[in-house]
Amino acid sequence: MTDSTHFDAIVIGGGPAGMTAGIYLSRARLSTLIVTDGVAGGQMILTHEIANYPGVESISGYQLSNIMKKQAKSFGCVIKGSTSVESLNLEPDIKEVTLSDGKPTQQIQ
User: How many CA within 13 A on the CB side of residue 93?
Assistant: First the structure.
C-alpha cells in the first residue's frame, strides 16, 4: 500500500466522544485521524442549547462542535467528514482502515 497515509491512531466517529478522543490523542503528539460519516460534532450540532456541559453555562451544539473541531485541529488532528469506514484489517502489524470515499487505505503504524 504505497499510496496509504499513516496515522498512529484512527478514531471512528466524530461526535463529542470521538472529538474528545482525537483532542487527547493529538495532545499526546500522536498523528490522529478522526473519521465521521457526517460532520464533526455528530448529532450535537442539531442541539439548540447545551446547558449541562462542564464549565459551560449555555452554548449551542453547533458552537460547541466548532470549538471542539478547532481545538482538535490546533493539535494537528486530521478530520475526514462525509465518509465512513468500509473495512478494517486488524491482523497485520500495520492495521488497515479502508474508507468509503475512495481515498487510499489509511494505516495505523
Answer: 0
